[in-house]
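Board notes, transcribed. Complex of a protein with zinc ion.
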Amino acid sequence: MGNCLKSPTADDISLLRGNDSQDGSEASSEPPPPYQESVHVPMYHPAPNISRPASQLTEEEQIRIAKRIGLIQHLPTGIYDGSKKIRECVICMGEFCVGDAVRYLPCMHIYHKECIDDWLMRSFTCPSCMEPVDAALLSTYET
Ligand SMILES: [Zn+2]
Ligand SMILES: [Zn+2]
């Protein structure tokens, strides 16, 4: 009894030493280098019918998508209040309900926010009138 030679402190020191003597343990403990952190969207659509996580996109695709997300975020959003002439979202063919989150396109067409955001990541034109959304946006930036 009381013959406690093996203390936890001694164990810890021997473990630390074991790590120290291994080659290059310092380098491996460094955090990964900062990657491009402009946008945080789980899945991207560089082209129709193509979905890829950000890590598999080329730099060019990442820039293009980042710009597109930036443009989409500049489109005004609102809550459907029942006063608009447009009563149906042509993307999901569903009627707007009062209180739905909607997004307004420059051509004055409105869609469910979720529907049009998904649509615009694939095709940057209004699904009703085929007017290019980015052209209208860019012209509003110019003036
Ligand atoms: Zn919809
Ligand atoms: Zn339109």
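The domain at 35-142 is CATH 3.30.40.10 (Herpes Virus-1). The mean pLDDT is 77.
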